[in-house]
Amino acid sequence: MIERLPLLFGIAIRHISRRRRQTVVAVSGVAVGVGFFLAVSAMMIGSQNDFIKTLIDAAPHIIISDELRSPPPQPGFRVFPDSAVVLRNYKVRNEVRGLRNWPAIMRAVNAEPGAIASPSLSGAVTLHLSGREEALNIIGIEPGIETKVSTIEDKLRIGHLRDLETVQGGIIIGEEMAQRLGIGMGDIVSATSGAGTTRSLRIVGLFKRGQSQLGPTSGYVLLREAQSMLGRPFIINRIGVKLADPYQAQDIGRRLEARFAYKAESWQERSADFLSLLVTRNVIMYSVVSAILLVASFGIYTVVSNSVADKRRDIAIMRSIGFSEGDLQIVFVAEGIVLAVAGVLAGWLLGYGLMQILGSLEFPIVGESEHLPLDRGPRQYAIAASASLFAGAIAAWLPARKAARVDPVDILRGAV
Amino acid sequence: MTAALEAQALVRILPGDPPITLVNDASLTVEPGTFTAIVGPSGCGKSSLLYLLGLIDRPTSGKLLLNGSEVSDQDGDARARLRLEHFGFVFQFHFLLPEFSALENVALPIRRLGRLDHAGAEQRALDLLKSMGLEGKASKTPDRMSGGERQRVAIARALANDPVLVLGDEPTGNLDSQNSARVVELFKDLAHQQGRAVVCVTHDLEVAAQADVRVSMLDGRIVDIARN
Question: Fewer CB within 10 Å of terminal CB in chain A, N or C?
């Protein structure tokens, strides 16, 4: 059959080349469908990828905190796991919060290929300045490690994380907090913790505004400074983990949690609501663009259907000289495929042009000029092409079946 | 000698209310090297019999033997293949494909059969057009040719795959007397010089008079078979 295809496609091309106006309309329909599919999906997927990248980069890929997913089992069950005894009114020991045996957890994380673990301790303090008080969540970090794990450094308007190591009592806060307190770089502010310790802290850096992931009421200090101020020496309550492949976060998090019992939350788990929203968004997008492509295929159906109606005599002639029903079906399906291919090629050009225009647009966001994030990968081109070719082939197949069923005798008898 | 085509009690009834009998109990033997004319009044079933003989239509009952083998029970694809290999058709209206040149029209059945490559098919088509005196018209589309030229292109196309049987349905019906005479001469030549079996439906008694065998039909039945 393959050796017959050039002949049958040649006949199909000859048919549609004689119907220029209808061909142009059908090809334009597919081209517009494909072009807008590419432009819309480039924007949607581009923004989705950008959003996911922001989600991934905003915080460590895994956060191990001093929390447990479920309360620890009763002491009786720990000693006699298969017993039917329930102890009541026992006194629970008040455990010190923090990750126990955290150096072992750090070692286990760092043993994972490409993984980096950054320890931190957070706690609440109150900032005092000229009779004003502001609550602040201080996070004690090791700047040298933290810069490898998070993107905090990129979000600083002024200063560097490393400055925490070089300036005694250094602190980095957000621009909003600094504005509320009326302080700036190099100014000193007094901080009191819940443990009653009061320190003078010097501003060594300011976060940019609008960093929702960092929070306007967070501030970064050196880890040992936080431990000292919060009265929790040698204790940490969080380990941030960065992985070489962020998509391994769920698996590795599960393994760490199973081993150390502490809650190891992956970025996917933290962002589950956003990720499910993206799925819904994608379903809507693909439904809309599928409808566009489907409508475009109606154009192909019309052209092929008219072709079958106009070519009934030619169909009878070809049947009488030895073309089979299958041959005729291929001729008319080929017409649809040729129209779809032409439409896809034109649509690719249109889509590329639209993406160039969209990519050149600038949008001012929080004082900075931003471009639309666009996904220009070949995947969307392939999806648009295969969907259009499939729709075109189906749209042509319906009238092609009719063509194959034409009884040549009826036509030859009634021919004039 | 084995008959090129043998019809045994062919019947063709169009279903309906009432059913219409197009061909009734038609038996006929077509020998190679003979020019057979089927004659009769309009609506007597001449063309219907020709379509049955050419495997374009299926008989309601009866048998059809091609070179001694029964072919009336073949499926659609097999019948299409037999038409391609063994039959050449010429109709009253040239029935050329309008988008294709004379050369392409003649090459079409050759390319479909697939025994020659594209260049070989075009060369054979050109040779056939030359034999019809149409070498200068090879690149012309049917709308740029006269009626006689178109009919000769149609004859060239009928001969494209060197068929044993050439069937004509009023092939001179739309031609002037000069072109008509030329076509009849061609048909006689196909039968007598090239040894093909030529069967031609005609209402033109002058054409029928030049045939070797004259088959007369009336009301779907063969009423007489006479040798000229």
Answer: C
The shortest CB-CB distance from A323 to any of B96, B112, B161 is to: B112
Most distant CA atoms of chain B, gap in Å: 52
Contacts for A32 with CB less than 8 Å, ≥ 6 apart: A292, A296, A347, A350
Phi first, then psi, for residue A54 (nearest 5°) are -65, -45
Q: What does the pLDDT read at residue A354?
A: 94
CB B114 within 8 A of CB A4: yes
CA distance B196 to B4: 9
The full DSSP string for A359-374 is HH-EEEETTEEEEPP-
What is the token pair recorded at B16? Answer: 């309906």
Can you read off the two tokens belonging to residue A107?
């070692």
Amino acid B51: pLDDT = 92
% of chain B with per-residue pLDDT over 70: 99
Please state the φ and ψ torsions of residue A254, each to the nearest 5 degrees. Answer: -60, -40
Rounded to an integer, what is the distance from CA A212 to the centroid of its chain?
A: 18
Residues B87-97 have pLDDT tens digits of 999 887 768 88
Interface size between A and B, measured as CB pairs under 8 A = 71
d(CA A177, CA A8): 75
| Burial readout B17-51 (b: 16 or more C-beta within 10 A, e: otherwise) | eeeebbbbebebbbbbbbbbbbbbeeebbbbbbbb
Query: What pairs with residue A80 in β-bridges?
Result: none
Per CB-CB distance under 8 Å, the chain B contacts of A322 are 80-81, 83-85, 87, 109, 112-113, 161
CA A368 to chain centre: 23
Distance CA A16, CA B1 (A): 49
At B113 the three-state DSSP class reads helix
CA distance B202 to B172: 8
Q: Considering only CA atoms, which of B152, B7, B84 is closest in space to residue A320? A: B84
- Strands B165-169 and B87-91 come out as parallel
SS3 content of chain A, % helix, strand, coil (to 5): 55, 20, 25
User: Do the Cβ atoms of A14 and B112 come within 8 Å?
Assistant: no
Write down the ipTM of this complex. 0.86
Structural contact between residues A79 and A275, judged by C-beta atoms closer than 8 angstroms = no
Contact B14, B22 (CB under 8 A): yes
Cis ω on the peptide bond leading into residue B18 (within 30° of 0)? yes
Q: B13, B20, B57, B95: best mutation site toward chain A, by most A Cβ within 10 Å?
A: B95
Residue-wise pLDDT tens digits, A342-398: 999 999 999 999 999 998 888 877 667 788 888 888 988 998 899 888 888 888 888
- Structure tokens given for A388: 């259009």
pLDDT of residue A59: 80
The phi, psi pair for A170, rounded to 5°, reads -75, 150
Successive 10-residue mean pLDDT values, chain A, 416 residues: 83 86 88 90 87 80 86 70 73 76 91 91 90 90 89 87 91 90 91 88 87 75 92 90 90 91 90 84 82 80 85 86 89 91 94 92 75 87 89 88 82 66
